[in-house]
Amino acid sequence: DSGVTQTPKHLITATGQRVTLRCSPRSGDLSVYWYQQSLDQGLQFLIQYYNGEERAKGNILERFSAQQFPDLHSELNLSSLELGDSALYFCASSPLGQGGPGNTIYFGEGSWLTVV
Amino acid sequence: DQQVKQNSPSLSVQEGRISILNCDYTNSMFDYFLWYKKYPAEGPTFLISISSIKDKNEDGRFTVFLNKSAKHLSLHIVPSQPGDSAVYFCAASANTGNQFYFGTGTSLTVIP
What we know:
The complex is a heterodimer of chains A (about 120) and B (about 110). By secondary structure, chain A is mainly β. Chain A contains no helices and 11 strands. Chain A has strands at about 5, 10-15, 20-25, 30-35, 45-50, 55, 65-70, 75-80, 85-95, 105, 110-115. In chain A, strands 2, 4, 5, 6, 9, 10 and 11 form a 7-stranded mixed beta sheet that branches. Chain A has a 4-stranded antiparallel beta sheet with strand order 1-3-8-7, with no helix packed on it. The N and C termini of chain A lie far apart (about 30 Å). The relative contact order of chain A is 0.33. The mean pLDDT of chain A is about 95. In chain B, strands 2, 4, 5, 9, 10 and 11 form a 6-stranded mixed beta sheet that branches. Chain B starts with a strand and ends with a strand. Classes of the chains: A mainly beta (about 120), B mainly beta (about 110).
């Protein structure tokens, strides 16, 4: 158990709909990262938040947005869903906002999104 | 631009033998390297890391070697066990940046 909690674990929704994925980081971690993994491909970095503020942005679509709340939990909002958005969405957390030694990221179990 | 590369998509090893997984990187600013193990439909699990000031770090059956001049790191698993069968990702970060850069993964199969 990494200490990172993601809900829901599985979600099936129709094209055009909107969903929200939730993540609670490990106790004491200030950074939250979101990754997407499609069809056993690599981990695609979407976005990072540190202590409530956006810190880095990766290949995140304009239809997707995220935020980190004062209690440090984060939500990833996916809207106007398309079939190609079906994927595993991982949240990860780390203590610090930047990379480098000692800042290890730990992953949650993922939220499996199926768009039909 | 893939800054961290795992050029071997898959590897098969006999139980009890050594598994060697390789990873190359291009950014000389990277100063922290990590390995993760991932089972299907589960989250990646942190295995072992190494700082750029070291060239070796060992934890039980897992050893990571770093060759900075070659921009290359490797993960050695000795002895390999069937439960080690999973996808292994290497990752890198720099204290001057925010992101963690992941390789595309190597699928390890340990044959009993």
